[in-house]
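Can't paste images in this forum, so I'm doing it all in text. The chain is below; anyone willing to post the predicted structure tokens underneath?
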Amino acid sequence: MSILKVDNLCKNFGGVKAVNGLNFELNEGEIFGLIGPNGSGKSTTINVICGLYQPSEGSIFLNGKRINGLKPNQCVDLGISRTFQNIRLFGDLTVWQNLWVAWKDDRNNQGSWFSNWFGKSESREKLISELLNFSGLETRANDLASNLSFGEQRRLELARAVASKPKLIFLDEPAAGMNKEEVKELRDRIFRLRDLGITIFLVEHVMDLVMNVSNRITVLNFGKAIAEGDPETVQNNKSVQEAYFGQ
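Text version of the structure:
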């Protein structure tokens, strides 16, 4: 079943078409990868879908409902969450406090995936403790976010995005700056979220990660989709090879 559909999506900045006639559809529970060279329009696509930018043309549908024009907080209320390329934590708050302020009170939806994961009767404090465990930050709970390593900040940002109880989560280059072991741990966390029924939209430059976790991949170049398919199909596509390597 489709959870997200993008139809002829365009975003112009003056005379520059950052996103140009983009079409794709995400199915519930899948991991969808969006890749492309720097400046190809990947982050702009996320920003348009999540309400930071308004589309110049086209339509965005979430569970069949058109969501053009919604603000970011309204998108969150509908079950959309995201991380950012440039980490956006509250540096003067502790790890625990960052998760606390991200918490979405959902008392009227006791059947949500989040309550099922952690237990319907658990307290808010207990659920945040589970998020700390999920992110491997149990021992850093009382440390300021600004004192975490870069990789730890990435993990906290992911946990904070999960705290809003999303049905669809956008990960914008979550492996940036991570070492190989951290990327492996990130892969495992992505699979864990997928197994909980969360649909994942992944933008990433670490090809080993995106090729290993994605069910389907769309490739952008200069704002246009030049290829779509499973990882093997995309890797063997001549247009993709030319975009990345000039072959």
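Confidence is low (pLDDT under 50) at residues 107-113. The radius of gyration is 18 Å.
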